[in-house]
Amino acid sequence: MADTVLVTGGAGYVGSHIVVELANAGYSPLIIDNFATSLPSMLPRLRRVTDRTIPCVVGDVRDLAVIKRLFAEHSITAVIHCAGLKSVGEGEQKPVAYYDNNVGGAIALVEAMADANVKRLIFSSSAAVYGQPDRNPVTEDAPLRPASVYGRTKRTVEQMLEDVSSSDAGWSIGLLRYFNPAGAHPSAQIGEAPSGTPNNLVPMLAQVAAASAPEIAVCGDDWDTPDGTGVRDYVHVMDLAVGHVAAMQYLARVPGSTTLNLGSGRGHSVLEVVAAFERACGKPIARRAAPRRPGDVASCYADPSRAQDVLGWRAARDLDAICADAWRWQTNRHR
Ligand SMILES: NC(=O)c1ccc[n+]([C@@H]2O[C@H](COP(=O)([O-])OP(=O)(O)OC[C@H]3O[C@@H](n4cnc5c(N)ncnc54)[C@H](O)[C@@H]3O)[C@@H](O)[C@H]2O)c1
Questions:
Q1: Domains and CATH numbers, the chain
Q2: For the whole prediction, is pTM greater than 0.90?
Q3: Which atom of ligand 1 is the closest one to the Cα of 62?
Q4: What is the DSSP string of 122-146?
Q5: Could you identify the atom of ligand 1 that is nearest to the CA of residue 14?
Q6: What is the pLDDT of residue 212?
Q7: Cβ of residue 124 lying under 6 Å from some atom of ligand 1
Q8: In sequence order, what are the residues at sequence separation of 6 or more whose Cβ sits closer than 8 angstroms to the Cβ of residue 64?
Q9: Measured on CA atoms in the order 231, 83, 306, 2, is the torsion positive or negative?
Q10: What's the half-sphere exposure (Cβ side, CA atoms, 13 Å) at 327?
Q11: Residues marked as catalytic
């Protein structure tokens, strides 16, 4: 029988793509989501992409009773913990809500997992744990100095999971530090669907190109980077999903805690991404200069060589593929 993998936040952007790749790889994904930042309409979309019904429990990972019941009722072999709040700006405004959801959710989940003796876990961490790195590309051993509340919640959970792993050799834990996930499934059935104003560059560009927003705000054009705009590492969400399947297979063999960057290894400035999106959609994109956002950094891109060595994984899709898939999703998502 196929291994059942619980994907918390599986109706969200990254989680939904992971669900598809898990199904493709022969796993049985099971979702828990409270739809805080996603929509139930993701479920029929997942059915269309995977050609099967993906079970979903509507609930909150912080609700220990719900999570414990989930483990009692399903024979879950591993968990991918994507559920969380991810807006850097919102985290600065609502720190307690961010600690409650991101740290509280992980504590409840680990407690329920230990209780059910399920000890294989992948955690959706973030390059935000590095803050502004001393040098790029950034390796996993770089100093951890998160510059935002969001990044500190991620680092706090990482630390807890490292402690869990040291306390009990039965655990296999992957701390996967995503750089900037972007793009969409090539079917254009699933993609990033932020509620309200998006916080991430590529969905913002998609909205402007679709005339649902007038222009993009370039937040900071005086950073210490070649063109003054922030440099980030954009990794296609499908590559990210493939990386999770590789990590799942690795963790089935290797105990302990493993920390890996999942990034493309290439840094692109905001203006380079705007140009790539203009190529993808075939129209000019209006922009205006705006102040830096609290918690942002000048430049951050990955050294992904450890993931290549450990998992045999590397990002296969480039920035043009990311923009083409994001645009296809934008123009087809309301079908
Ligand atoms: N997208 C990025 O830029 C990025 C970068 C680095 C790390 N991450 C991390 O990856 C994970 C997934 O991000 P995403 O981009 O898919 O975000 P998302 O908002 O699209 O998905 C998060 C999902 O978790 C659910 N959720 C939130 N709190 C929950 C709770 N307490 N109980 C149950 N469900 C809950 C939401 O409803 C949503 O479906 C997050 O942990 C995020 O911090 C994302």
A1: 4-182+233-265+302-315 (3.40.50.720)
A2: yes
A3: 31
A4: EEEEEGGGT-S-SSSSBPTTS----
A5: 16
A6: 84
A7: yes
A8: 108, 111, 112
A9: negative
A10: 22
A11: 150
